[in-house]
Design brief:
By secondary structure, the chain is mainly alpha-helical. The protein contains four helices and no strands.
Length: 70
Amino acid sequence: MKIEDIRAKTDAELEFDLNGLKKDLFDARFRAGTGTDGNTSRIREMKRNIARINTILHERALGVRDAASK
């Protein structure tokens, strides 16, 4: 997920995506723990996407990006 795509979404859409990513991350960690999933790099990417969404939501709550973006 690219940062431009994240910034284009509304807060409600971001919350929905965030909840979905957290559920997917839980499932991927479970599969990695049991050894049924060979793609462990996906966990890292999901964690980064969660962090990106949280950052954008926090910036919007503080009003940091609203003043800078035109």
